[in-house]
Amino acid sequence: MKANLMFRDRDFDLKADPCFGKDILTADLELKRILSNMAQGDEMISAACSTALFCPLQSIEEIRYRQENLRDAFRNPGAVRQLYKITVETEKKRRSSWHWLSSSYLSSTFSGAVELMKIYTGMLMELRLIADSKLSGFQSEGFRNLLTMLRRELDDDYFAEVRAHLNDLKDGDGMLVSATFGNYLQGVHYVLRRKTRKDSWWRWHFAPSFTIAPRDEAGAADLGKRRDRAVNEAANALAQAAEHLEGFFVMLRNELAFYVGCLNLADNLRALGMPICFPGLLSTDSKDRSWRGLYDVSLALTKNAAVVGNDLDANDKRLYVITGANQGGKSTFLRSMGQVQLMAQCGMFVGADSFSAPIRRGVFSHFKKEEDTAMRSGKLEEELARMSEAADHLEGGALMLFNESFAATNEREGSEICRQITKALIENDVEVFSVTHLYTYAVAFLGDRQTQFLRAQRLDSGERTFKVVPGEPLQTAFGEDLYKKIFG
Amino acid sequence: MFFSILFPTREQHGESRQTDAPACFRDLNLDRIFAPVFQSKKGFKLEDFFYTSLHDPEIIVYRQDVMRELENNELRALFSDFSREIYDLGQYMNTIRSSLTSGDSWRSNYLTRGQMLDYADRYCRTVSALLDGISRLTLRSAGLRGFAEYLSAYCASESYTGLCARVKQLRDAFSTVEYCMLIKNGTIRVRKYEGQADHSGQILKTFEKFRQGVGKDYRHKMMQEPYAAYVEAAVLNMLSELYKDIFADLYGFCSRYLHFDDETILRFSREIPFYLSWLDFITPLRQTGLSFCYPRLCNTAEHLYDYDGFDLALARIEYGKTVVNDFALNAPERIIVVTGPNQGGKTTFARAFGQVHYLASLGLCVPGREAALYLFDNIFTHFGQEEDLSTLNGKLQDDLVRLHELLDRATSRSILIVNEIFASTTLSDALSLGGHMMDAFAALGAPTVLVTFLDELASHGPETVSMMSTIREDDPTKRTFKIVRKPPDGLAYAIYIAGKHGLTYEQLCGRLGK
Fold first, then answer.
1. CB atoms within 10 A of CB A103
2. ipTM score of the complex?
3. For site-directed labelling of A154, which of A99, A449, B106, B178 has its Cα 20 to 30 A away?
């Protein structure tokens, strides 16, 4: 039995290796806020959403599969939350039952497995009841398959068969075991046998017999071991079934958790009046992007208010150079670009009116470290070291986000380093968004048709809109403004 | 007639052997070299053979030939499996014989007879497999050829073929039996099996649909050995009532073949590990590029050498980073005097010289690409304690006493390894004592390696060869661990080090002169 809500044909592995730079991305793109809003205090949701976010899908097919399921969840939020609740409930019951499968005594493994099977079969029944009543409301392949499977596999006859076995194993009339001779004539290949009518007590009564002495502990232990050997396979089958059911419930919980997380975030963004949409994805080799009302989800959640969005249609671009005033919304824009890419590639909705972009082979961020108080030279080295580490993982088709990188030295040096790195990246099919103050660096790409220049918008009045709009770099930044504003 | 794989004749095998490690073991780190070998072949009592150095070239060559042949991996695998199995069976059969002849039903029962059947079966399979394996090969060494001939004669003998046939007949009979036990409270009853269904299988099938990938295995590892042997024996006893003929056959077999194992084959299985364990030990070292060779053994010390030799005890730890060194002594040279920076591999070089000779005397292949080594009567070592100045006089006296003893017992057929003695006395004392020592060594004429900080000893006379541990030319703080023929120049290293700290004469003058 499989949940298959995250992938059409495979399990959702919470332990899957995250993409390179998970922690860096979390910090640079302020993803913690987004994840915690999805989780609403539920660690399982947090883990599931984090895994999904940091294992970006690489095929449009896979992404559409999740998008369809998520659309379905939006249509049936109550049922989805109810299913999730059952999986959480199951886990609670398992914990409070104090039964577990591993034990140094086979007899306790055996009885533990029997008890756990009782819990799981009860909860499976609850799942099936929801499937019975809610199936008709679902349209997506993922949810329909899951609910149909529950109804098909777990009919009443099956529950009866399971109960019969659980009862038979408690039989106290003695255990029937067959054996053959081992290499030195010891009994081997013990097989637990189901007694038949022929095994009536009087036929066995006249068979040769051996009875251990009343206080013979070794003999009693020996008989116990014989029983263990006979029941070994049955106990294993039961324990594995219990383990597999535990796995099924965990899997179901993990996969539902993602959708519940999405429901939570969507609810909260809607409450702030922020738009959400399902992104359109293009193949990796595309160089087109377009967005309307793209905003920084994390910022909206942090401010708990509506925030400004950006618009652009970019065709055949591989480099975006963003310049302009400090505090003008450049970093926010860059963050939103990283967030939207990761969210889109895990099958989520995104924070925008509309959005389309190519699938990217990984998102990489390289942000200037604000808190770094080391000496300048050390800082540049640290930046280069970080870049070098990222370069170990970069490949064509990736998305690289620079935020004032390599500025920890004079402009000429910084520009040259940055130019060489950027040039190498874009010529090797890495898409680059670069927020920079390095004028020399920025203008080096003037005239390149595949470069899109963007600038933090400033109205004629000098006021900032916090929007990023097309515009070539200007020689001066707007630090003076800020100075004036702060120092009056 | 073949007797032993370690000695050409039965008489040589009978000569007494050393039961304790020779005195030089510690200083030469031979104890460390052999420890893993002994460890891997515990119980085989190989120690004596490794403790007893040989002086008869005939035996050494006999062993070298066997070992050279065993370098063939296929052949080695064949004997390795065989040796372990036959050795174990020999031990087991000793126990079985004492049980079956005890007349005690607690020990002498059908379970014990079942074990004997099993051992006989394994013995036959192992012996036949070996015959099968070696009959496909052409053996060249006298030792292995002798054994092969013995084995094929043994396998053709009527007693062996009879044994094999009886074992098979019994096995076939027992394999047809399947019985049922009804275990209830404290009683076991037995009957023949009557086709009752497999309950576990049914359960497995019912729960199959919940399977997610490969599950954890909850089966407990059940001992194949019954927990209480006497219960198993009782079950067999009951079964002997249900299957009378088969059990009667087993009883007859056990009295007839109680001593089925052959003494010469058992001895071979105990002794072949001498070679196998050594080859197992050196194989990983060879894979790191180190050479081993079969040295020529010389009756005179006119021309001794070993190219690309190394300290085996160290190589085992360094794994892959071992530096190899050459030595050659051409008459009239007898004494190698090693000087040079500390921690530069001098002691290692001296040890390697002793090791290679000792190992060669056992008939083993030895570190080096090509070697001619001395057929010695004894190896004497004298390793002083370095850098312990706390007990100056006591040490010096001790050094001298030991040196005296050594010179007393050594002959021109001996090998001497002397390491850093007189380190704990004044330089003038050390020089004059060292001079006396060199006179004595020169007079003795035995091949000698002397490690010393006294450069002067390296030019004592025509019998001395000066060798030095060296440092890297581009970075004088790094040792190369190469020991080369070179006159001593103890100052060079100190100047490099001083230069590094800006403390050479010129530098210090420059700094002080401002």
1. 17
2. 0.71
3. A99
Lowest mean pLDDT across A178-187, A244-253, A475-484, B477-486: A475-484
User: Is pLDDT of B269 > 50?
Assistant: yes
Number of other CB atoms surrounding residue A154 within 10 Å: 19
pLDDT 10s digits, B348-394: 999 999 999 999 999 999 999 999 999 999 999 988 654 333 344 55
pLDDT digits (tens, 9 = 90+) for A387-402: 888 888 888 899 999 9
Q: What digits encode the pLDDT tens for the residues B155-171?
A: 999 999 999 999 999 99
**Is the Cβ–Cβ distance between A178 and B193 less than 8 Å?**
yes
Q: Is A220 on the interface with B (CB under 8 A)?
A: yes
Q: Are the beta carbons of A431 and A272 closer than 8 angstroms?
A: no
Question: Is A215 in the B-facing interface, judged by CB distances under 8 Å?
Answer: no
Q: How far is CA A15 from CA A12, A18, A55, A255, B455, in A?
A: 9, 8, 11, 13, 66
* H-only helix segments in B319-386: 346-361
- Higher pLDDT residue, A372 or A229? A229
Q: How many C-beta atoms lie closer than 10 Å to residue A31's C-beta?
A: 23
Q: Confidence class of residue B504 from pLDDT cuts 50, 70 and 90?
A: very low
Residue A279 falls in which region: left (phi positive, over 0), alpha (psi -120 to 50) or beta: beta
CB contact under 8 A, A174 and B191: no
Contacts of B230 in chain A (CB under 8 A): 219
Give the Cα separation of A259 and A77 in Å (integer).
Answer: 9
* Contact yes or no for B371/B295 (Cβ under 8 A): yes
**Residue type present at position A261:** G
Tokens linked to B92: 């087991």
Number of H helices, E strands in chain B: 20, 15
Question: A251 and B184: CB-CB below 8 Å?
Answer: no
Distance set, CA A294 to CA A400, A467, A469, B341, B501 (Å): 18, 10, 12, 71, 63
DSSP SS3 for A105? coil
Q: Alpha-carbon distance B135 to B129, whole Å?
A: 10
Q: Is A381 exposed, middle or buried (0-12, 13-18, 19+ CB in 10 A)?
A: middle
**Are B482 and B345 in contact, with CB atoms under 8 Å apart?**
yes
Of A30-34, A207-211, A298-302, A457-461, where does mean pLDDT reach its minimum?
A457-461
Contacts of B71 by beta carbon, 8 Å cutoff, 6+ apart: B279
Q: Please report, for residues A26, A373, A417, the alpha-carbon distance to residue A379 in angstroms, rounded to integers and kept in the order given.
A: 21, 8, 14
**C-beta of residue A347 within 8 angstroms of C-beta of residue A63:** yes
Q: Contact A175/B184, CB-based, under 8 Å? A: yes
Residue written as token pair 């909206």: A300
Dist. CA B8–CA B416, nearest whole Å: 30
The 10s digit of each residue's pLDDT in A59-95 is 999 999 999 999 999 999 999 999 999 999 999 998 8
* Contact at CB, A221 and B227, closer than 8 angstroms: yes
Beta bridge partners of A215: none
pLDDT > 90: percent of chain A: 57
> Measuring CA to CA, which residue among A318, A323, A317 is closest to residue A439?
A323
Q: What is the per-residue pLDDT for B505?
A: 46
**Subunit contact A240:B215, Cβ cutoff 8 A:** yes
| A13: contact with B, CB 8 A cutoff | no
Chain-centre distance for alpha carbon A55: 7
Instruction: Report the 10 Å Cβ neighbour count for B48.
Output: 12
- List C-alpha distances in Å: A331 to A81, A307, A399, A467: 36, 14, 16, 11
Q: Residue B106: helix, strand or coil by DSSP? A: coil
